[in-house]
UniProtKB/TrEMBL annotation, chains A, B:
The protein's Enzyme Commission number: 4.2.3.1
Enzyme class name: lyase
Lineage: Bacteria, Bacillati, Bacillota, Clostridia, Eubacteriales
The keyword Repeat belongs to this UniProt entry's keyword annotation: no
Domain of life the protein comes from: Bacteria
GO biological process: isoleucine biosynthetic process; L-serine catabolic process; L-threonine catabolic process; threonine biosynthetic process
PTM sites of type N6-(pyridoxal phosphate)lysine: 79
InterPro entries cross-referenced by the UniProt entry: Ser/Thr_Dehydratase, Thr_synthase-like, TrpB-like_PALP, TrpB-like_PALP_sf
Protein's recorded name: Threonine synthase
Species per Swiss-Prot/TrEMBL record: Agathobaculum faecis
Keywords, sorted A to Z: Lyase, Pyridoxal phosphate
Domain Tryptophan synthase beta chain-like PALP: 40-353
Requisite cofactors: pyridoxal 5'-phosphate
């Protein structure tokens, strides 16, 4: 299911943005909501596009590099866009309750927007979900239900409730068209923040990939709307996965037309993109097709590369982010060394989740340093 | 030490804001930085001002109520404003290293902006500081040094380093004038977000209180600059503390001219405002004077009231916040019932820290609900 617009009418209308509306809702004419009063907003969108030249220099990448800070959305992840639009649409449809399946970020986001809307929210999470993410979702007052097995089982439970009880299913895969519509706004913002031009490459951490599809549609719409010349190529969309769970990257590397689900045990610090796609492999295929059609690609990083990239963005940029996000940073080093990134290219890496989402697990990673050692470090530094 | 400006010249100049600059830096002409290239920004400021009418209705408070979402700043707290301005000033002064004492939020913020600036950062934290906050600060690459005893000991250590090694001390108390200057911008934003008017009351969680002093100065400057009529009264500034640590509120209630430090053990879920003010009681006195001069007041909440307010803002608004922040919410119920808030008054509550800052401790508060119970809740809800 996809939402279509009459771009010619919109282009003539001229008033594509309504600056008086909050966050991403200034793009209301390009979003699938009829009435302004149904907007459910917490101030999502309008995230910073931060130039990060020092990090490019460290990687030796001669590019113009930006970070799109989606981790700075209200609930701490890029999922606030689809949740804001999805819950608003549910409100417009007269729903009093929504359901969602999520392995983390989308659960918290949907719970937050449901609370804002005064709706009940039922969240199915895999039993293995990070406690911090469960606590966040529950804190908003959502009914959080752990489900045994992998994410696909939670996905099925949400689908079941949606069908049996008629609750809107906000699960942010291609199941819900509002997801892609909301994710478009990331592209609109990047275009505006670059002063009215497209980047050459956009790099996104990928689970099933709605954000890549949405962003690509956003750039395509800007061209339809005449914001850039009709012959202007769209940005190359690059997706990053973990070596531990890379169903889409595997298909890309094999030159397959179809994505197949990922079997085998998964152990990665990039939980947000740890999705075997069991039962909805076609979502992955759509993402694969987008990466190829855009002239982009799919790649993967090792656990070591992901953790190194996490420390890189935190210590050289000052953004605290979960390892999943950092895959969009680590990918740049690889893409530059492999010659995929051209000299002088404008590159945007999207950070999808805040470091807070991962703090709990860090306790096992960061070695607590004793006071004595700390003082030695201090004295060494002050010599 | 206080920074002064030639308001007449500024008012004539006209160009008070530079919209092309990021976050709070659009107010550069009113900030103590000479050169634009010394700006160290992560996109701080420009936080949402969210109308929260449903919560007002629940409290039965007939007011026009807004939340200023300072917890949505990049590192998760309002301390990003003073850290951005403080580190930028340190950069302009040619410093390569900064030092700070903090019980949490300011540590993470200063570590983040130091990383952004490529400066070393030394952070002294009380040994009892929440591990999550220590992990965040350390993740940015700062040298984090736990100090025994209460916050005052960490404060002394930072002071010592600043004097001995000449490092700029970013400790965000009145010790550092840039703090108050940065905090002014909260007032500018509230004024603009209300469509060019002052709120009647601004409610702020208070440790020593630089945010209250800064915001008050900001409103006062807007009047000096002719943005409001000269006879327009400034907002009443209300400060909130925990019953467990209320040195300033105690002085207010006793009608004292001076604030005295808080002795005795402190046990509160509002760690961000748990400051006994030992050794810098005068900072508290300045805050007390501001609350009185503005026609505002100081009050305190019990632990139960604070936790209830935390759940209120999370489940009725959709903002995940640390209990410290929620004191600005719970205060409204008290102030309305006591008749301090007039019918129809425009009230702004400032949320200072993100709920992520507190997730770790919630594990002990939230009772994990079994799957069976969850399913019962679900079924009850679906009848």
């Amino acid at each position: 299911m996809e939402v279509k617009y009459d771009y010619d009418a919109l282009a003539q209308d001229g008033r594509l943005t309504l600056p008086e509306l909050p966050g991403l809702w200034k793009y209301l004419p390009l979003l699938p909501l009829q009435q302004e009063e149904n907007i459910v907003s917490l101030g999502e969108g309008g995230t910073p596009l931060l130039r990060c030249q020092r990090m490019a220099d460290i990687y030796g990448a001669q590019i113009e590099w930006y970070i799109k800070a989606e981790h700075l959305n209200p609930s701490g992840s890029f999922k606030d866009r689809p949740s804001s639009v999805g819950v608003s649409a549910a409100k417009e449809a007269g729903a009093e309750k929504v359901v969602i399946a999520s392995s983390g970020n989308a659960a918290a986001a949907t719970a937050a927007y449901s609370a804002r809307a005064g709706m009940e929210c039922v969240v199915f999470v895999p039993e293995s979900t990070d406690p911090g993410k469960v606590i966040q979702a529950a804190s908003y007052g959502a009914t959080v239900i752990p489900v045994t097995g992998n994410y696909s089982h939670s996905y099925d439970m949400a689908d079941l409730c949606a069908k049996r009880f008629g609750w809107p299913n906000i699960t942010s895969t291609f199941l819900n068209p509002y997801t892609v519509e909301a994710d478009k706004t990331v592209a609109y913002e990047i275009f505006e923040q670059l002063g009215g031009r497209f980047p050459d490459v956009v790099i996104i951490p990928i689970a099933s990939g709605p954000l890549m599809i949405g962003a690509y549609k956003g750039f395509d719409e800007l061209r339809h709307l005449g914001r850039v010349p009709a012959q202007q190529p769209l940005p190359a969309m690059v997706g990053v996965q973990s070596e531990q769970c890379m169903p889409i990257t595997r298909a890309y590397l094999n030159g397959d037309a179809q994505v197949h689900c990922w079997d085998g045990t998964i152990s990665t610090i990039a939980g947000g993109i740890s999705d075997p796609l069991v039962g909805y492999e076609n979502d992955g295929t759509l993402t694969l097709q987008t990466a190829r059609a855009s002239g982009g690609m799919m790649l993967c990083l090792t656990e070591g590369e992901i953790w190194q990239a996490t420390q890189m963005v935190e210590t050289k940029v000052g953004y605290y982010c979960e390892p999943t996000s950092a895959t969009a940073i680590g990918a740049v080093s690889k893409l530059w060394n492999e010659g995929f990134l051209k000299k002088g290219a404008t590159v945007v890496s999207v950070l999808t989740g805040h470091g807070f989402k991962y703090t709990g697990r860090r306790c096992n990673i960061l070695q607590p340093i004793s006071k004595v050692e700390q003082l030695e470090i201090l004295l060494k530094k002050t010599q």
